[in-house]
TrEMBL record:
Naturally occurring in which organism (per UniProt): Pseudoxanthomonas putridarboris
Ranges of residues in domain VOC: 1-127
PROSITE patterns in the record: VOC
Superkingdom of origin organism: Bacteria
PANTHER family hit by this protein: GLYOXALASE FAMILY PROTEIN (AFU_ORTHOLOGUE AFUA_5G14830)
Pfam families named in the record: Glyoxalase
SUPFAM superfamilies the UniProt entry points to: Glyoxalase/Bleomycin resistance protein/Dihydroxybiphenyl dioxygenase (SSF54593)
The protein, known as: VOC family protein
Amino acid sequence: MIDHIGLPVSDYARSRAFYTQVLAPLGYAVVMEVTREMTGGYEGCGFGPPQRPHFWIGTGRGGASDHGVHIAFAAQNRKQVDAFHAAALAAGARDNGAPGLRPHYHPSYYGAFAIDPDGHNIEAVYHLPE
């Protein structure tokens, strides 16, 4: 059900160092990092087993608390991602990224984003090529 989760942080460098140290005993390390230039505003990194970031920390476009917590739900195909986004908007969410490829994560990353009524950034994502 949950593909990954992300926490907004106020000091990215400090939080990256903190979680690098804290998660190392569990066998987790930074496995992906994205820059503001890649994403249009977000800077962050994902921790997890090799090639699979499940826990993200990062800054938002204008600060750490832009969109509360980020939760990505696993979809079974791209049509489900599209339907999730349409349903979220119909239910009153604000658009935060239309369905589409996000190659800065990996070539097949297909996701859609919305801001829920409490300000959390919710996403549906599908990882395989279609």
